[in-house]
Specification:
Mismatch-specific DNA-glycosylase; alpha/beta; Uracil-DNA_glycosylase-like; 13% strand; single chain; 5 strands; 170 residues
């Protein structure tokens, strides 16, 4: 199964970075397409989007200044199926994308995505100190997977920090 296309362009406010596409996303060609994934609801409930979008509309979020990519392009059933080599290659490619497109914020959708990218052992929620690139803030948000054991209020509260930052930037 092929990866799904990135939605990236210069001047984005936020690039959302996931681990890798789900099998459902690979089948549909859209980011966060698994119906058990709460990504689109989180964006709307945190005020990042003016309405509830569907995965099939992921390309339309470029108009809002939001882009999408993953640290690993290959769709899998879960992150346990990602190899060390895929992470190493994915880190290199992701760094190239961030350096080229220079988004204001790189939002890592899950602590594990950020620790794989940064090679740091730990991360806290929210904005991270010492970003890799001075032109891009690094923000760690909870995974939107339905398997996450945080309340939706907690998750939305963390995403609200990103909403507040973007509101203050513009």
């Amino acid at each position: 199964m092929n990866g799904i296309p990135d939605h990236l362009e210069h001047g984005l406010s936020v690039v959302f970075i996931g681990f890798n596409p789900s099998l459902r996303s690979g089948e549909t060609g859209h980011h966060y397409a698994n119906p058990r994934n709460n990504f689109w609801r989180i964006l709307h409930q945190s005020g990042l989007t003016p309405r509830l979008y569907q995965a099939s509309e992921d390309g339309e979020l470029l108009q809002l200044g939001y882009g999408f990519t993953n640290i690993v392009a290959r769709p899998t059933r879960g992150i346990a199926d990602i190899t060390r080599e895929e992470y190493a290659e994915g880190r290199r490619i992701l760094r190239e994308k961030l350096a080229m497109y220079r988004p204001r914020v790189a939002c890592f959708v899950g602590k594990g995505v950020y620790t794989e990218y940064s090679r740091k052992k730990q991360a806290s929620w929210g904005f991270q100190p010492d970003p890799q690139y001075p032109f891009t803030h690094e923000f760690v948000a909870p995974s939107s997977s339905g398997l996450v054991r945080m309340s939706s209020d907690e998750i939305i509260g963390i995403y609200n920090q990103l909403t507040e930052c973007l509101t203050n930037l513009y």
